[in-house]
Amino acid sequence: MSGGVGPTGSDISLPKEQEVDHKEQQYHKNLRKPLTTPHKVGFLSFRQFNCLAVVIVLAASGMVSVEDFAFVVFSIIYMYFMSKVAFPSLHPSKEPLVFNPQNKLLRLYVLIGAIIGLYAPVAYILEGIFEGDKEGIKAAAPHVFLLASQVFMEGVAFSGRFSTPIRAFVPVFYNSRRIFTIVDWLRAEVHKINGSDRRIYVGRTLAVANMAFWCFNLFGFLLPVYLPKVFNLYYSGHREED
Predict the structure, then answer these.
(1) Can you tell me whether residue 219 is helix, strand or coil?
(2) Cα–Cα–Cα angle for 159, 88, 32, nearest 5°?
(3) Strongest mean pLDDT among 9-13, 27-31, 144-148, 163-167
(4) For the chain: N or C, fewer Cβ within 10 A?
(5) Is residue 33 classed as helix, strand or coil in its secondary structure?
(6) Residues 87-95: what's their mean pLDDT?
(7) Which spans in the chain are helix H?
(8) How far apart are CA 126 and CA 47, in angstroms?
(9) Beta-carbon neighbour count of residue 23 at 10 Å?
């Protein structure tokens, strides 16, 4: 015997086959273990505060309809209601992540969405202010307002207080609403006759690009890919607790 210090060469130990099996079991167990969201000390990131500033500026400028503003308020109330009634958080400090945030393809996809949906339309609105294109600004503003609101609300949902289905609720809910605003934007750009030819062409290109990207995002990614993974993670957590 080893005298309580640990196994020595003369002690009974696991055969090599059992050691290999033991290591393989540990390896597969770690693979099955989902990534979790670490508990955040802060509340929102710099990106979320920037989007909140965009929301406030557009709302104060009068370019946002009462319906769009009411939609944002309703989404906040409904998100808290659903988090209490339908999808309470199972592990508030470590909710599982659906995708690895370090995935390069996913990061590229998010960057493309930010450029098409937020950065380019904001630049289009700013240029319209200098050129006096009120028609183009009014058409693009609702989409930018709702997308900036979505980014802000995603920051709230990922603050560690909400379950994975509630986090998925935000992009699905907002993406569904924004498609209608993009349709109105595209219709306004097609029938617009005032302004330079370059600006008309840029406005139509932006509207078409946003329609294509966000329709794919909703019907090709969020609904068929993202939501099933979300519910699978959430209800597998329920089964583990039971």
Answers:
(1) helix
(2) 80
(3) 144-148
(4) C
(5) coil
(6) 72
(7) 16-32, 46-61, 66-85, 104-114, 120-131, 134-157, 164-190, 197-216, 227-241
(8) 19
(9) 10
Average pLDDT, rounded, for the chain: 81
Whether pLDDT at 204 is above 60: yes
Q: How many CB atoms lie within 10 A of CB 62?
A: 9
Collapsing DSSP to helix, strand or coil, 96 comes out as strand
Q: Which two tokens stand for residue 85?
A: 């009634």
**How many Å apart are CA 85 and CA 88, to the nearest integer?**
7
Chain mean position to CA 236: 22
197: tokens are: 């030819």
Where do we find the tokens 């009634």? 85
Question: In Å, what is the CA distance from 221 to each residue of 84, 183, 192, 193, 228?
Answer: 27, 20, 32, 36, 10
Give the separation between CA 24 and CA 20, rounded to whole angstroms: 6
pLDDT at 99: 80
For the whole model, what pTM was predicted?
Answer: 0.79
Query: Residue 64: CB partners within 8 Å, gap ≥ 6?
Result: 58, 141, 142, 145
